[in-house]
Design goal:
heterodimer; A: alpha/beta; Alkaline Phosphatase, subunit A; globular; B: alpha/beta; 2 domains; two-stranded antiparallel sheet
Chain lengths: 398, 402
């Protein structure tokens, strides 16, 4: 015992932190992000600012305006991202994008915490209640329908790049007097069609969701996607497959497709959902972390692509947000990072980053907002009226 | 059917002891709200296959709510009574299929925005129950051991980051014969404190030699069952109308004999192993997930006095370009990724152990296998410190348990 105490030293910093109770953890969710970002990026608190938004809202400016939304269909918690112990996983978001962004630290999702239904809620501005595992359209008009109807835009002006087969109905609702929305590209579906089902076993890439890591849906409709490949992306099947062989994950494929769309169609409203990090449902923590690191890199890659495209450079506003978080380590009803089933504060709370045209740089806003506020905000920015959305425009973006 | 309609004969399909238990408490069961009752029956119906700790907890729960006055019972269950259910839920055979009811109720709660209210009500009920019938203290300090990083020759990043604030980090241990020392220590505890399912050893690979007094399960020993399960699932997936929720319901209704894990003449352990594979997401394909989930469930259900978990390397996920280039290659093992998984798994092991009675006196040791790094959380050792002692793991365990 004596020898033991002679050879001890007191740890400092993160290792010496006192453990937080779940309630304290919840309370500090927003605070930790804000304090961390402020220290790391030199950002200022939004409440200290005054004056009009830098948004230019003239008609001609709106016609050229491009908006790209990236959502993570697979929540990421603070402790793996913006908290000190998670910093190493998001070097690009932190060092490259956050300093240019308005960062909203306290975004809550009060709806169903399933990825398809939550993404549908993000896209309609209403907490949808559809079956998360069914390929059904949202019950309310989507942002793509509002955009096209009010601004009289063609279908080529808005696209969704989504991770899996279950998302193929997210582009438009069945709501009366709406229904013309975005075309949805499912890159994994495309890959399956390109291999004609005779190629390698891609089962684990084709998961609709990672809630059940063994379930792989039957994919149908290959001809349509192959036609899209040639007609819209100007890409032969051989070239597509050759490029796919250089990519390590479905999200990389999604970003590749998104970049092709930007080059070939220059859509004004482009929505991309990432899914790699949802591999957390398999319970392998290292794979979840790998997914976060990949998403971090891909967000920066897409922003670089924006800067490289004349149609987009200086004209694009990018929104990045997870659809929700994941369960807290200390919640007995869950199993920590693996799922998002408890509905606890950690699983309902997330963040949003906005950067680019019309957005204040290096500002942190920590007043609570809801994820359904995104669509009304996009409407205010782009000049359409999402009449049925239930969220409120984020005034800091107006 | 409503709870007030229940009669003894509705439990005819329950296993014998479960039927007896339900009938013995029928009077109070009839008075419970439907939003709550099937969740209780889900436990009752499995009574014959439960561990002693679970049986005791269930008996206490039923005795406690039976002892409440009408006014108290109304007060305890008011929140549940306010949960609005749908007619279709009420038509589910919730007596004989309480798990299926639970799945559908969960979906209903989320879609009607009642999940938060239900969660709050359930937590309040749990706290009340715990206060009214506090669980007994363990007869000896509970001990958890996690062995991580099998096969990893070197690793530069810090380990046990989540645990360091709670205990002492050892960086220069004497690791000679450590695995044998630890398994021997578990065996000695099993000998000294005999209790059914009181001492466990979970191995994410092949189990090492251990005392027959220890309850053991391993990923390797369940290889046949896992293969049978995967075949079963693939067959089910091909059936029309099958989706993730239907598949989960199918898995919940499987029996040990369906997977050939009914040979050990221990129906309780057979059922436990079945549930690890059918209820645990990822336990069928990743050995690290299997070990973590098995540890969680063993602690939650059996409340063992001793639990040693040894993680083993899991298969890697092959990147897309690799899959497209060489489809037939068998997946390799991911040693470093498995160490990261296991490091988190050890943290969750400790958290789950701390949820059990006697937490303030519990001891937890996590060791990087074949290396000199370990973490010990014990009331007899300081928190947030690092030790460079070259103590061996056997002596360290004695020190931690002193």
């Amino acid at each position: 015992m004596d020898e033991f105490f002679q050879n001890t030293k007191v740890l400092s910093g993160r290792f010496a932190e006192e453990p937080l109770t779940p309630r304290e953890l919840s309370r500090r969710l927003s605070l930790s992000r804000r304090e961390f970002l402020r220290g790391a990026t030199g950002a200022v608190l939004g409440s200290a600012l005054s004056g009009a938004s830098p948004y230019v809202r003239g008609e001609s400016a709106q016609r050229k305006r491009k908006v790209i939304v990236i959502t993570f269909g697979g929540g990421a918690r603070d402790q793996e991202t913006f908290a000190p112990e998670g910093q190493a996983n998001i070097p690009h978001l932190l060092n490259e994008l956050a300093p240019q962004s308005s960062f909203f630290t306290h975004v809550t999702n009060q709806g169903i915490l399933g990825h398809y239904v939550a993404t549908a809620s993000l896209a309609t501005g209403v907490y949808e209640t559809l079956n998360n595992f069914a390929a059904v359209p949202p019950d309310h008009p989507t942002v793509f329908e509002y955009f096209r109807k009010d601004l009289r835009r063609p279908s080529s002006d808005t696209w969704v790049v989504a991770p899996s087969n279950g998302f193929n109905r997210i582009g438009e609702s069945n709501y009366r007097s709406y229904g013309s929305g975005a075309t949805v590209i499912l890159p994994k579906h495309l890959l399956n069609a390109a291999t004609s089902g005779s190629g390698p076993n891609l089962d684990h890439l084709l998961h609709d969701n990672y809630e059940d890591p063994l379930y792989t849906p039957v994919l149908e409709g290959g001809e349509f996607e192959l036609d899209q490949l040639n007609r819209i992306l100007r890409l032969s099947v051989d070239d597509f497959m050759a490029h796919a062989r250089t990519l390590s994950s479905p999200d990389e494929l999604s970003v590749y497709i998104a970049k092709r769309l930007m080059q070939q169609e220059s859509p004004s409203l482009l929505w991309i959902t990432m899914h790699d990090m949802d591999v957390a449902h398999s319970g392998a923590y290292s794979l979840y972390i790998d997914g976060i690191r990949r998403t971090d890199r891909l967000c920066a890659e897409l922003w670089k692509a924006v800067q490289a495209e004349p149609e987009y450079r200086d004209n694009t506003t990018l929104f990045i947000l997870p659809d929700f978080g994941r369960d807290a380590d200390y919640d007995a009803a869950g199993n920590g990072f693996q799922h998002h089933r408890t509905g606890d504060a950690v699983s309902r709370t997330t963040w949003m980053m906005a950067l680019g045209r019309g957005v204040r740089e290096g500002v942190i806003y920590d007043q609570p907002m809801q994820s359904i506020d995104l669509v009304p905000s996009l409407g205010a920015i782009m000049g359409f009226s999402p009449d049925l959305a239930q969220g409120k425009p984020i005034k800091e973006l107006l | 059917m409503q709870p007030s309609d229940l009669k003894p004969e509705v439990f005819a399909n329950y296993p014998p002891e479960a039927r007896t238990l339900a009938c013995a408490h029928l009077e109070v069961i009839r008075q419970l709200p439907l939003s709550f009752l099937p969740n209780l029956l889900r436990e009752v119906i499995d009574y014959d296959f439960k561990f002693p700790a679970e049986r005791s907890a269930l008996e206490k729960e039923l005795a406690t709510i039976s002892s409440l006055s009408s006014a108290e019972r109304e007060d305890w269950f008011r929140g549940f009574a306010h949960i609005a259910l749908s007619p279709s839920l009420e038509r589910v055979d919730w007596v004989n299929q309480p798990a299926r009811f639970g799945e559908q109720e969960s979906a209903h709660l989320w879609s009607t925005h009642q999940q938060d209210a239900f969660r709050e009500t359930a937590m309040a009920y749990g706290a009340r129950l715990s206060a009214a019938a506090p669980p007994g203290e363990p007869p000896v300090k509970r001990l958890g051991i996690a062995i991580i990083g099998q096969g990893v020759s070197s690793y530069d990043a810090p380990l046990f980051r989540n645990l360091r604030a709670h205990g002492t980090y050892f960086s220069k241990l004497d690791a000679k014969d450590a695995l044998q020392l630890l398994l021997a220590a578990v065996g000695e505890r099993a000998q000294a404190h005999t209790t059914p399912y009181g001492h466990w050893y979970v191995d994410g690979g092949e189990a090492a030699e251990h005392s027959p007094l220890i309850t053991c399960l391993s990923y390797k020993a369940l290889e046949g069952a896992r293969a049978a399960l995967l075949r079963n699932m693939q067959a089910e997936i091909q059936r029309p109308g099958m989706g993730p929720e239907q598949l989960r319901t199918h898995l919940a209704e499987m029996k040990p004999s369906d997977l050939g894990i009914d040979k050990a003449s221990d129906p309780v352990l057979d059922r436990f192993q079945l549930k690890i594979l059918t209820e645990g997401s990822g336990t069928q394909i990743f050995s690290t997930t299997f070990a973590q989930w098995a540890a969680r469930e063993a602690l939650r259900r059996a409340q063992p006095l001793t639990l040693l978990v040894r993680f083993a390397p899991r298969q890697s996920i092959r990147p897309m370009n690799d899959l497209l280039s060489s489809p037939q290659t068998e997946p390799e093992l991911d040693f470093t990724g498995s160490l990261v998984d296991a490091d988190m798994g050890a943290y969750y092991h400790w958290i789950n152990q701390q949820r059990l009675p006697g937490a303030s006196q519990s001891v937890f040791l996590a060791w990087f296998e074949d290396h000199q790094q370990a973490m010990v959380v014990s009331p007899s050792l300081p928190h947030g410190v690092e030790s460079e002692s070259s103590i061996d793991l056997g002596k360290l365990l004695q020190l931690a348990l002193s």
